[in-house]
Structure formats: structure tokens, C-alpha cells
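sorry for the late reply, my laptop died twice this morning and i had to redo everyting from scratch. anyway the thing you sent over, i finally got around to it. pasting the sequence first so we're on the same page, its 292 residues, then the predicted structure underneath. double check i copied it right bc i was rushing
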Amino acid sequence: MKTWQGISEFAAVAELHSFTAAAHQLGLSVAQVSRNIAALEQRLQMQLLYRSTRSVSLTEEGKLYLPHCQHLVASLRDADQAIQQRTQQPQGLIRITAPVYYGERFIAPLLNDFLQVYADCRLDLQLTNEQVDLIEGSYDVAIRLGQLGNPRLRARKLGSRRHFVVGSPAYFSQFGCPQNIDDLDEHRCFTGTVKQWRFQVDGKLETVRPESYLHCNNGLALRDAAIKGLGLAMLPDYYVTESLENGQLEEVLADFRQPDDGIWALYPENRQVIPKVRVLLDYLSEKLILEK
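ok and here's the structure:
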């Protein structure tokens, strides 16, 4: 039984309201389109189209059947496209946005390496800490850190990051170390773009909004202030790992450290990711994991 016979032809005729236009779109003769739809109606034992010399319209059964056929045709087209893309060489312009510091330190060097491998690609990288609109800005990919919230975008996790509450040995010598999150009320705390600090207490997330001794929307500035003994900062690993290793900073409240959050690639909602973007995401994911 030729289960698929007539499906594409019926969907095309229903959408274009013309056997001639459907035949042209499908690369078939009008007679062949008509025969295949007739065979479909015969198999279903019901009429799907009203035909006249001037017009084509759907029967009630045709209206019910059409969305299912359109879904099948679209799925088949996506399957064909997906398998074809596996052999396509990525090429053309890719527009990317990323946070400033993370972009400078990690993303930009990897993109430069990517261009050495895929010479037919071109890149437009915009570094900004603003949450730019991918659709309006015509971006292919946005690198985002932490919590996500845009339902219009698809997300792929590229890695993770860990937050530390840190201070200098000189600060702890003068002011002591906080033993629990309630002790933060007695300490000088810095705040950045996010003014709330998250902790995990007895398996549950708790949020603290410390009084800001120093506020700055730049992580490097907050790290410098912490190294100089001015107070405590909560910063991601890529700001403080080296300073923790060389003793400039020390971690406190490690038992209450919040769960690691994500490093994400966001891209517009499409049925299939175009080859150049898919290859780029694969590349970034592999390299960022290796750097951990």
C-alpha cells in the first residue's frame, strides 16, 4: 500500500488552490497530481477536494485531514534538510553577541581559532553586557551566563560556572570570617550587576540582598577591591580562580555555595539550525568543556 501517495500533492493543491500551481511547485504534470490525489481519496474512501473548472476547495474531511498532511510534509522536508546539512561545509557570516569580560577571555580567542579551521566563515562579534534582542539585532547566536528567561529563543548549554564568596587574608585578619549567611550583615559586601547573592542552605536555595559597601557593574573592579582588603565579593570562577590559587583571595561560606549555573548559547527558534551555526555551537561546546 502506497501510504504516502498523494499526501504532498493534496497539501500543495489545498494551499495553492490550484492543480496547475501545485504541479509546477512539485515538478509534476497536472495529470499526475490529479491521479495521485484521486488514489489518496480512494484509499481513504472519502472526498477531500471539491473540483470545478474555476476553483478548488476543501471538503469538511479535507479540512480535517490537511493539517496532518502539512505536518507530515514539513517533517519530511526537515528530515531531508537535516541529513543534507551533515555534509554541507559551513560558510558565510555569523553574528554573535557575548558578555564583555567572558567574551574577551574565552569566546573571542575560540572564535579566532574557529576561523582558522573554517575559512569560508566570517564573524561579527559584539561584546556587550546588555541583553540585546537577537531577532531585532539579526544575531545568529548570543552567549549568555546564568539564568535564562526568553521563551522565543532556543538554548544550548555550553558549560557551567561556579560562584565564590571571596575576600583577602588581610580583610579576614581584621574583620574575621563569616561562618553562615546571617553573618554577612556584619561584613562589608560588594554588589555588581546582580544585587542578590544566592546560597544553598539545607538543600534549598536562599537569596540574600546584602547591604552594598561597594557597588560596581564590573567584575574585575570588584575582584581588585576584594584583593585590596575592602570587603567580600561574590564572583564567578573565571574572575577569581587564579587569585584563589595564588593566595590573594580566600573563599568563605563554601558549605553554602549555590549550585553551578549555566553558560548558554541562545539562538532564534527554528526547526533546524543552519550548518554554520550548528558547527560553531559544536566547536564552542567542545572547547569550553576542554578548558574546564
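The mean pLDDT is 89.
thats about all i looked at so far, will dig more tmrw
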